[in-house]
C-alpha cells in the first residue's frame, strides 16, 4: 500500500546538558555525526525533511531541506521544537525522531508509518518495554493545535500532551538496540567499545 506523504522532523535543538553542553546531533558516533545516521534512515521517506536546531545551523543545513528554530531563546525543550516543526511541515503527518538515536533503522520507521496510517487522526508513539517514547512518533499535523494550547497554559511535557490525544502504540522490546539513546559521553564511549 502506498503511504500518505510524510514530513520528517529531526529534533536537534537541545542544550546537550548531559553531553557537557555539546550539540548532541553533531557529536560523532561510529565516524559520523549522530544526526547523519538518523537522517540517512529517514531521508528516503520524505521530500520534506526538517531539522529543529538552535545553533550550528550551517552544519545542520547539510542534512535538511529546511531548518526550524524555537520561537523562544534559552533552549525551552522538545515541545518547542515540535511546535516549530509541525508549524512548518508541508504534509498532513510528521514522523518525529530525536537526534540521539543513531541506531534507528528504516524498517522500524516504515512500521511506524504503516501503523499510524491505520488511525491517521491519532498520534503513533513507540513504546519500549511498555514505556512510551514520545519523541519517537508520527503526529498528525493537526496535533499542533493541542501543543499550542498546552504551551499557552504552561505545559512543557510532550508526553502529557500526546497521551491526552489517545495515541496508537507501536510496541518494541525492552532494550531494543535501535532505540538506544546516546545522550551522555559515557553511553557513547560504551557504544564505541561495542561497535
User: What's the CATH first level?
Assistant: Alpha Beta
Count of DSSP strands: 9
Low-confidence sequence ranges = 190-195
Overall shape = globular
Distance from first to last alpha carbon = 36 Å
Q: Nearest-angstrom radius of gyration? A: 16 Å
Strand content: 15-25%
Q: Sheet with the most strands? A: 7 strands, mixed
Instruction: Provide the succession of SSEs.
Output: EEEHEHEHEHEEHHEH
Strand line-up of the largest beta sheet: 5-4-1-6-8-7-9
SS class:
alpha/beta
Residue share in helix = 25-40%
Q: What is the CATH-assigned architecture?
A: Alpha-Beta Complex
**How many domains, in number, for the residues?**
1
- At CATH level 3, the topology is Spore Coat Polysaccharide Biosynthesis Protein SpsA, Chain A
Number of helices: 7
Structure in words:
By secondary structure, the chain is of the alpha/beta class. It has one domain (7-194): Spore Coat Polysaccharide Biosynthesis Protein SpsA, Chain A (Alpha-Beta Complex). Helices cover 32% and strands 23% of the residues. The strands form two sheets. It has a seven-stranded mixed β-sheet with strand order 5-4-1-6-8-7-9, sandwiched between helices. The chain has a two-stranded antiparallel ribbon with strand order 2-3. The protein is globular.
Amino acid at each position: 500500500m502506498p503511504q500518505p506523504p510524510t514530513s520528517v522532523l529531526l529534533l536537534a535543538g537541545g542544550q546537550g546538558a548531559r553531553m557537557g553542553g555539546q550539540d548532541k546531533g553533531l557529536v560523532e558516533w561510529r565516524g559520523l555525526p549522530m544526526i547523519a545516521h538518523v537522517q540517512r534512515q529517514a531521508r528516503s521517506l520524505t521530500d520534506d525533511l526538517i531539522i529543529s536546531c538552535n545553533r550550528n545551523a550551517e552544519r545542520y543545513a547539510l542534512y535538511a531541506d529546511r531548518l526550524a528554530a524555537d520561537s523562544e531563546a534559552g533552549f525551552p525543550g522538545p515541545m518547542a521544537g515540535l511546535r516549530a516543526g509541525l508549524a512548518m511541515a508541508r504534509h498532513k503527518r510528521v514522523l518525529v525522531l530525536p537526534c540521539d538515536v543513531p541506531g534507528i533503522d528504516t524498517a522500524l520507521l516504515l512500521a511506524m508509518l504503516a501503523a499510524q496510517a491505520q488511525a491517521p487522526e491519532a498520534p503513533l508513539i513507540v513504546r519500549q518495554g511498555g514505556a512510551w517514547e514520545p519523541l519517537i512518533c508520527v503526529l498528525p499535523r493537526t496535533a499542533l493545535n493541542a501543543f499550542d494550547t498546552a504551551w499557552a497554559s504552561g505545559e512543557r511535557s510532550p508526553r502529557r500532551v500526546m497521551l491526552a490525544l489517545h495515541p496508537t502504540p507501536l510496541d518494541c522490546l525492552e532494550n531494543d538496540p535501535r532505540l538506544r539513546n546516546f545522550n551522555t559521553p559515557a553511553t557513547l564511549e560504551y557504544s564505541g567499545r561495542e561497535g
